[in-house]
Specification:
The chain has eleven helices and six strands. The chain is an alpha/beta fold. It has a single domain, classed as Rossmann fold. The strands form two sheets. Strands 4-1-5-6 form a four-stranded parallel sheet. Strands 2-3 form a two-stranded antiparallel ribbon.
Length: 238
């Protein structure tokens, strides 16, 4: 079995990667302190190739029709296979990988690996944009978005872009949708869902309840109107 996590940086994906590793999954090597598979440069380069086929329409609108209809670029395939070499060559019964940038090229990952197990991971965007991540500035990966010098706004556009890309992709054969907040506040039920999905007993790792709802005491801008429909869709309150 191969599993990967699709979720934006700073959404708590470390927790699910560590949980899988502690549950006996080989998550590639080497790993950094965030439980990302290293080195990341080939994944980053693959994301930039993918972005060449995404058309920016203005505002928070991107046209993914080309990447959804075409087969992955051959150079993209080479880069991903080389990035995942330690995982793909492993004889481990259960294995996988995690790096948030996988989300930036998710539709082509799905085309390359249609039968693996996908975990869609989401965190309340108002919490997700409070801290920085490499993907805050999507232009690093060749993706256009509205001009702004406001770092919170950049992070908001990054969250929205990745959310739209996840929703635009076809539904995988094996898919589980999870919220970071449920992993923190309703861990036993969330682990039960994972066990049913993967057929493997799940280890418990320490989670911090104060990581949920930080936006409520934040004195900066954390709410953008284009978050509204997704907040409602993911059953987060206002």
């Amino acid at each position: 079995m191969i599993v990967t996590i699709i979720g934006r940086g700073h959404s708590g994906t470390r927790a699910i990667s560590q949980t899988l590793s502690d549950s006996g999954f080989f998550m590639g090597e080497p790993l950094n302190r965030s439980w990302d598979l290293m080195p990341p440069e080939k994944m980053y380069d693959a994301c930039r190739i993918f972005a060449n086929y995404v058309e920016y329409k203005g505002g928070v609108s991107w046209d993914f029709s080309k990447v959804l209809s075409m087969e992955p670029d051959s150079e993209f395939v080479r880069l991903i296979e080389e990035y995942l070499a330690s995982v793909l060559s492993s004889s481990a019964e259960n294995k996988g990988w995690k790096i948030p940038e996988t989300t930036l090229c998710y539709p082509w990952i799905l085309k390359m690996f249609p039968e693996i197990f996908y975990i869609h991971w989401v965190r309340d965007p108002r919490d997700c944009i409070l801290s920085g991540h490499l993907t805050d500035d999507l232009r690093r990966f060749g993706i256009s978005y509205p001009e702004t010098d406001n770092i919170r706004e950049k992070r908001a556009y990054s969250w929205k872009y990745q959310r739209e890309l996840m929703k635009a992709a076809p539904t995988p054969e094996n898919l589980l949708k999870l919220r970071f907040e449920d992993m923190v506040l309703d861990r036993d039920n969330t682990l039960s869902q994972l066990e049913a999905f993967l057929g493997v007993p799940m280890a418990k790792i320490e989670m911090r309840p104060d990581s949920v709802g930080r936006w409520k005491t934040d004195d900066g801008v954390n709410m953008f109107e284009f978050f509204r429909s997704d907040i409602e869709e993911c059953s987060y309150g206002f």
